[in-house]
Structures are given as C-alpha cells and as structure tokens.
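Objective 1b: paired records.
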Amino acid sequence: MPHRSSTPSPPPSWAIQPVPPQSFDEVVQFINTARNGMFPGRSLSPDNASLFKEGTCFLEARDGKNLIAAIGYIPYNHRFPQFFNFHDLNTVEVVRLFVHPRYRRCGLAAALFTALHDEAVNADVERFYLHTHPFLDGAIKFWEKRGFEIILLEDDPYWETTHMQLMVKRREEV
C-alpha cells in the first residue's frame, strides 16, 4: 500500500466566475475548439455569442488570465417533445462543459458543476436536463456521480444519446 503524505495538496490555482461580457467571444472560441476536438467527423453548428442571453448562466474557470474551462445552462427549449414533457417544472439544460486537457482529473469539472448548481438554486431552477454520449469517455459516470439519473437511452447507432436529469433542491431544502 503506498504511503500517503500528510502534507496537504496545494489549493487549486483556478478561479471560477460568471463569464463577463468582454469574454463572450473568447469563451465561444474555446467551446467551439473543444467541441470540434470531442466530436471529430460529426457535423455540429458552431456556437456564437447568442448563447449568453437572458435566462442562461455560463461560468468560466481561469488559471491567471488563461481560460481553462467553461460550463453553462440554458432554459430547456423542449427540443425533444417526443420524449419529454418538461413543462411542469422550471427546467434548464446543462451545456458546454469543457475542461482544457491539462486541467482534467483534478476536480475542476466537479467544481464548475457545483458552482453552476449553486447558481441554479439561486435562480429557482427545479430540474437540470442534459444529454451526453457513451463515446465521450467518462461522461455518463461523471454526471451520475453528481446525482443525475438516466431517463432515456436513444436507440441511435450514430449518436447513442443518453438523456439525464437531476432534480434541484430548493434553498429551503438544502
């Protein structure tokens, strides 16, 4: 059994904050670059600054001035009506969780989601929805560790979309 040092690890060098308007273009470029790398050979429309509209919440992580990660939520737009009727609760869709490869596996993605969850509680969000894919290594397990449950596995050999949800506890329940 390896010996664990009693010396505490240094605190993370990153800071998580809402994306300020002057960083919209930089964050969109970061997201588009990450999406192209994660979905090679798949047709995706590029994002633009329209992501940052009323009712959305986007957070960034920076190490000094360097953008190293992003996450956001948008109001759920009922784009899967054949599967879900999410009209009953204030539902948002978690989108665009990307962490620079050098900062992976150190808790940054979990910290970003925790911060996003806190923002959602303050905004009276009642349900998180997201979809992911099994070809994104570790994604489903990551979200399950955060409390998400699988609500549908699409029978689609190209995308194999996995739909998930998490009920958000209200402030008085926390």
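Objective 1b, second protein:
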Amino acid sequence: MAYYYQGTLRNMTYHLRKFRAYVDEYLEDYFTFSGTQELLTGMVANSQLYRRGIEGFGTKIMSYAPYAPRTIANKKRKGQPYTRVTLKDTGAFYEGFKVIANSEGFYITSTDDKTEKLVEKYGPSIFRLTAENFSRLIRGHLRKDLSSFIRIKYGLKIK
C-alpha cells in the first residue's frame, strides 16, 4: 500500500520557524499592550505585595525585612495594613509600575523615585511574579489570547 505524505518534515520545520518569528513578535507586542501591563502590575502590586506581603518567590517580606516600630505606628494611624510589608504608603511606588518587554523576555519595574532604595532593602524579587501568578498568566490569559491571534492571523482552529 502506498502512502501519500502531506509534507516533508523539513518543510514543516521551515514553516514552524517562520511561525516562531510571529510568536516572538506577538509576545513583544502582547507585553507592551496596556491591558497586559495592568494585569501584570496588578498581580505584583495587589495580589502579591498588598494582599499577601510576599515577593516573587513566595517569601513573606516581613520575615526578612520587617517594618520598624515607627512605621507600624504610622501604618496604624493611617489605617493601613501593618501585619505584612506591603510597600504601599502613598501609592506612588505602585502607580509607577510598568512592564518592559523585549526579545529576551519581560520584567516589571517602577518609575518611582524610591524604587532603587526599595530594591536595595527588599531585593529585586519584589517585582517577580510568583509561580502561581506566572501560571495564571500563561493558562488564563496568554494561551487564550495567543490562540485568538493565531485563529485571526492564519484562519486556524486551536483548542
């Protein structure tokens, strides 16, 4: 019995390389899109820092750099959380959050004047997504959005 091959492996590999270039381009655009910026910065600022007081590896910031007694008193006076380090006082640090994306990947930083001092004290992992939030990004957002992009761009059906 003779078999009819739809395409050679070499030909498929070539087309997948071309597709890879589109995916890379898409990802750079995806991370500069304002909706994605808000999603990522919200994950770090609200889900991790403010609500749970953790950095990107899941470590409670209070466990290695607790608030000073004076800071706790100020937080109580303002009605702000003081049982966990939130890195939020005026909100300027959170408002300065932005996502930088290039061909190497993406990272989160802040344009606030206190950023360098806070990174020095608490470490750069304050900007890192936890494994849980990274998984949420991939499974809940990126896969769905990339599938939609592929469907529109190439007329393909992906489940």
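Residues 62 and 85 are 6 Å apart (CA to CA). The mean pLDDT is 88.
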